[in-house]
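Q: Joint fold for the lines below.
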Amino acid sequence: MAERILMKGNEAIAEAAIRAGCRHYFGYPITPQTEIAAYMAKKMPKIGGVFLQAESEIASINMVYGAAAAGMRVMTSSSSPGISLKAEGLSYIAGSDVPALVVNVQRGGPGLGGIQPSQSDYFQATKGGGHGDYRMIVLAPASVQEMASLTIKGFDLADKYLMTSMILADGTIGQMMEPITFEDAEIKTYDKPWALTGTECKRPHNVVNSLYLKPDELEKKNFERYEKYEQIEKNEAMWEDYMMDDAEICVVAFGIASRVAKNAVMTARSEGIKVGLIRPITLWPFPKAAFEAVSDRVRAYVSVELNMGQMIEDVRLATKCSAPVTLCNRTGGMIPSPDEILDSIRNAQKGVL
Amino acid sequence: MKTTQILFAGFGGQGILFSGKFLAYKGLIEELQVSWLPSYGPEMRGGTANCNVILSDTPVGSPIITTPDVLVAMNLPSLQKYVGTVAPGGQIYVDSSLINAKVERDDVQVFYIPATQMAKDEGIVSLANMIIVGHLLENHSELSFDGVNEVVEKLVPPKKAVLKELNIKALTLGKCYGK
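A: Joint structure:
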């Protein structure tokens, strides 16, 4: 078995990206994700890769756009306010159908907000952020090990579907250290005949562009893109069921919130409450099947989030309002204690008796 | 299930994060489940710093400690802030050369170690933290002093080899304190 090593979540992302074949990193420092850039700065020059600290977030996302158009495995990382700055580029990348990996190690917002952990960019990540009809694949790691494995997965999905994969983490998972192993992950590579690699006068020019001035052409492109999104919704949803076998109360939480929620679920179980946890690993596509599978049995849902209630809307959609959904939340960089979640579980239990 | 939750707290610069890292690496070597979570806010720039370490034989749930089994307090504000959170039956380690106050709880075990003074006397001023870690390893039933050499070996970079011996010295001072 591979050796267990201790690593920060942010470092795990960077190491995994390199192992996945990423040789181009463009970024701009911001707490709490700067370790990603620091790791890349140290490693990339030694392996023939490119680390470049751009003059701004906007510059860095456009460098990502360029390298992606040239067929490279490329990434950038930032934290909440920095991702807002990158939003224009994310929309252009979506409109050009090129693959990229973008990491958001979230901090409290809106505005400059704070630097403590948050999940308040859920809407931005899953519903848009940039302009236009588009989606990103959004992956939500809940451990340092998943920071690595989902980074590798994210590059793979980006190449497979020619779009952006976003790692939506938070300050806690970014900063914490846990043991991690780098098994020899299978790294898939994809032919990129569309890439701008120079024609050498042997083939017609490739064009990467998001401008379509004829509305019928733009509409056709958008329809095609949404057919692709439909396939992704069908095939790529990921989640973890925790103590869901006989659960009548279902906690829904992702990332760091799911870690705290597990403690609360365990305590509630010891009090005889039949409670479990659904942890979405892909936030888009939202794992609707997880909810369909338990809708006959679950009598109440508790959405635990580090925001004012964003994922709860997707929980209501996925459950088709078959049972009440309540919110247990903290925001601004605060994290609920297991006891606060336990209280919400108890209240949900009382409500359905 | 055995889980030990340890909270280190003090000023930035006292080696709070390193102390936590030391225990985390020790847990790693002993094949335990481990989490290490530092504070990374503005308090790191001169104010209070703290570090949450969880060692367990089962997977760690939340890495955030709300009720520590062990508190290591290296300044008064940290002791005052966290003394009430320690689990009944838990332990508190106090650097008594920096903290004059006594812990007014009778449901916890308290160890007063003049670590900063001891470190000064031995000419290892920056290693008061490791004196306390040595005392903690010796006095906590779930932890052990055995194997510290291996951890020091792993954590101290080759360029600073001279620090290896000094770390062992500090750990041993802590182990033997009061005996």
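Q: Anything notable?
A: Chain B touches chain A through 20 residues (CB under 8 Å). The longest strand of chain B covers residues 3-11.
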